[in-house]
UniProtKB/TrEMBL annotation:
Its EC number is 2.3.1.51. Belongs to the 1-acyl-sn-glycerol-3-phosphate acyltransferase family. It is an enzyme of class 2 (transferase). This is 1-acyl-sn-glycerol-3-phosphate acyltransferase. One of its GO terms (cellular component) is plasma membrane. It comes from Pseudomonas karstica. Pathway: Phospholipid metabolism; CDP-diacylglycerol biosynthesis; CDP-diacylglycerol from sn-glycerol 3-phosphate: step 2/3; Lipid metabolism. One of its GO terms (biological process) is phosphatidic acid biosynthetic process. One of its GO terms (molecular function) is 1-acylglycerol-3-phosphate O-acyltransferase activity.
């Protein structure tokens, strides 16, 4: 019953936030800070509805350089709400072109100044990447990318795609990794408190002076750091869960 109520409220939240986001986009189209504001419109009510407790330690994200490439692990559509609480100022996202057909959200995504890439057309995708590189270099705007390229419910990170790292090297801007704990499999949406989520950002990784020859090692370095961080957060949450279970057992005796 609680799960169904939550899904109904989430659907309502999606519609209301979409309408407000489209209105914001119409009032100031393609403003690079629209993404942050729209993310909050979705995320803040959603966290109240879902009763997910998010603990964020993201100092390196809040104090990021004016322009950088932010990379994050991608688990599910709930990432919109979980990461929406920490999207920094003047940050846009890269998404697939098909998103523009999603009612309200697609129009909001476009008006918010985000980048839509046609992955089936190499020439258009390359042109979009060049535009994004110019944005990083000249407009004090950061780009948020999910380098796995798709949602991942597995036990480890998928191999990273090259696009985010090509952009960072071409623009000479640092990369800021952001990690979220493995939360999707552990959410209990039929309980009042549905779970805990940890988000941590890692120190910026500079790319100044790097060339495309350095890209494979850069990708390996970023992926290794993120794997270590996610594993540490998962162990931390597991330990908290075990202590809570022991405490409940002690009270029931």
């Amino acid at each position: 019953m609680l799960y169904l109520l939550r899904m109904l409220l989430m659907g309502l939240n999606f519609i209301v936030a979409g309408v407000l986001g489209v209105l914001l986009g119409i009032c100031r189209p393609f403003n690079p800070d629209n993404s942050r504001l729209c993310a909050r419109l979705y995320a803040l009510p959603a966290m109240w509805i879902l009763r997910l407790r998010v603990q964020a330690q993201v100092d390196s994200l809040h104090h990021k350089p004016n322009s950088c490439v932010i990379i994050a692990n991608h688990q599910s559509n709930y990432d919109l709400f979980v990461f929406g609480t920490v999207v920094p100022y003047r940050t846009v996202c890269i998404g697939k072109k098909s998103l523009k057909w999603v009612p309200l959200f697609g129009q909001l995504f476009w008006l918010a100044g985000n980048v839509l890439i046609d992955r089936g057309n190499a020439q258009k995708a390359r042109r979009s990447m060049l535009t994004t590189t110019h944005t990083l270099q000249h407009e004090d705007t950061s780009i948020w990318v999910f380098p796995e390229g798709t949602r991942n419910l597995g036990e480890t990170l998928l191999e990273f795609k090259k696009g985010a790292f090509q952009m960072a090297i071409a623009a000479g801007v640092p990369i800021v990794p952001v990690c979220v704990s493995t939360y999707v499999k552990h959410m209990k949406l039929n309980r009042w408190n549905s779970g805990e989520v940890l988000i941590r950002s890692l120190p910026a990784i500079p790319t100044t002076g790097l060339t495309l020859d350095d890209m494979p090692q850069l990708m390996l370095t970023c992926r290794a750091q993120m794997l270590d961080c996610i594993e540490a957060m998962d162990k931390e949450l597991q330990a908290v869960s075990c202590r809570s279970e022991l405490a409940r057992e002690g009270r029931s005796r």
